[in-house]
Design brief:
eight-stranded parallel beta barrel, alpha/beta, 34% helix
């Protein structure tokens, strides 16, 4: 049986790790290089580094920060933010990333997933999905974000039974795209893993959106990382059991010291979940 992974997340803005609630009200959480080294020593299975304003600011991920982080860790490092071209994927892999996460550009130009996975292997390509519950009234006003010639325009559009909508640009822009359909579509294009964040639950410490996590996990043949909402070890347990995720990601509970990675792993192991101790 494959072990479940515990993954701290470094959301980076202007060179500092930050954490907010539902993607807003950000507060400082420390230096990314120092935190990376700390989590490597704590026994984290992997580390995720997301430059959360790169896409919305129209700039590239800060490769120099990625280089400094990669020098401090000996566990797999996933990097995302501002990835728009295959060349961006190459640049981040050369800077020390093991995997590259693509979010906004993948929605707008899905062929990027196929091209990147063909160039570097699907195991290097992570499709990041920021999803929010569909509000009353159906599709968002931004449902025309996808170009008329977008290959998945009809297949991905929200329908009357859609429950979650994809957002891009760091959670700032609704797309009119059904999150579960998008996950399935992205896996078909060659994404080797899903990084699934519930915007509704993010930073609230009340637990993951288990319905969203399970829906995506059941829809795709690749590993799913649950993100958004971890407030304690019991939530991490729920994500990899009831939510059927392959990994659970957290930030707040680890950054501010309320829980340590080793404590989470012991909690899971004591309940029969296979983890790397």
């Amino acid at each position: 049986m494959l072990t479940k992974r515990i993954i701290p997340c470094l959301d980076v803005d202007a060179g500092r790790v930050v954490k907010g609630v539902s993607f807003v009200d950000l507060r400082d959480a420390g230096d990314p290089v120092e935190l990376a080294a700390f989590y490597d020593g704590e026994g984290a299975d992997e580390l995720v580094f997301l430059d959360i304003t790169a896409s919305s600011d129209g700039r590239d991920t800060m490769a120099h920060v990625v280089e400094r982080v990669s020098e401090q860790v000996f566990i797999p490092l996933t990097v995302g933010g501002g990835v728009r071209r295959v060349a961006d994927v190459r640049r981040l892999l050369e800077a020390g990333a093991d995997k590259v996460s693509i979010n906004t550009a993948a929605v707008l130009e899905p062929r990027l997933i196929a091209e990147a996975s063909a160039a570097f292997g699907s195991q290097c390509i992570v499709l990041a999905i920021d999803a929010r519950s569909v509000r009353d009234g159906g599709p968002s006003a931004a449902s025309d974000l996808l170009a008329p010639n977008h290959p998945g325009r009809a297949e991905l559009a929200l329908n009357p039974v859609s429950r979650w909508e994809v957002y891009v640009h760091g959670g700032r822009t609704p797309t009119g795209v059904d999150a579960v359909a998008w996950a399935r579509y992205g896996a078909g294009l060659g994404a080797g893993e899903m990084l699934l964040t519930s915007m509704d639950a993010d930073g609230r410490l009340d637990g993951f959106d288990l319905d969203l996590t399970k829906a995506v996990a059941q829809a795709v043949p690749v590993p799913v990382i649950a993100s958004g909402g971890a407030g304690g070890n019991e939530h991490m347990y729920e994500a990899v059991t009831a939510g059927q995720a392959d990994a659970a990601l957290a930030a707040t509970i680890y950054h501010y010291g309320s829980i340590r990675v080793a404590e989470t792993k012991r909690y899971l192991a004591d309940r029969g979940v296979p983890v790397r101790l």
